[in-house]
């Protein structure tokens, strides 16, 4: 059974930082592209960052230079370090895993709430 379990969300003031974690189980972690998506109220879910199985990364323009995605293959964990947070970063953040060859094989976590406000 595949599980993606996010943690690390919460409330933070503008300009603050948070680190999200996603622990994966039930998959061969190294052959999956791991990503973070977010969904704000009334908006569509959008890509935040991805860490591909070949080591490359890509980011949404809105978070470049503020967020960093990383992965620890030894512990099957992907992280999202978020700095200089803005109120518009408020959303539910979801962890995502996509098989590197079978793109239809997709898994999602349950989401973790991030709220940025003063």
What does this structure look like?
- With 118 residues, this protein is mostly beta strands.
- 0% of the residues lie in helices and 53% in strands.
- It contains no helices and eleven strands.
- The protein has strands spanning 3-7, 10-12, 18-25, 32-39, 46-51, 57-59, 67-72, 77-82, 91-99, 106-108, 112-116.
- Strands 2, 4, 5, 6, 9, 10 and 11 form a seven-stranded mixed sheet that branches. Strands 1-3-8-7 form a four-stranded antiparallel sheet, with no helix packed on it.
- It is globular and about 40 Å long.
- The model has no long low-confidence stretch (mean pLDDT 96).
List the helices and strands and how they pair.
Elements: E1 3-7, E2 10-12, E3 18-25, E4 32-39, E5 46-51, E6 57-59, E7 67-72, E8 77-82, E9 91-99, E10 106-108, E11 112-116
Parallel strand pairs: 2-11
Antiparallel strand pairs: 1-3, 3-8, 4-5, 4-9, 5-6, 7-8, 9-10, 9-11
Briefly say what this structure is.
The chain is mainly beta. It has strands at residues 3-7, 10-12, 18-25, 32-39, 46-51, 57-59, 67-72, 77-82, 91-99, 106-108, 112-116. Strand 7 and strand 8 form a beta hairpin.
Structural class: mainly beta
Strand count, sense and closure of the main sheet?
A: 7 strands, mixed
Overall morphology? globular
Order of helices and strands: EEEEEEEEEEE
Number of strands: 11
Low-confidence stretches: none
Question: Which features does this protein show?
Answer:
seven-stranded mixed beta sheet; 118 residues; globular; four-stranded antiparallel beta sheet; 11 strands; single chain; mainly beta
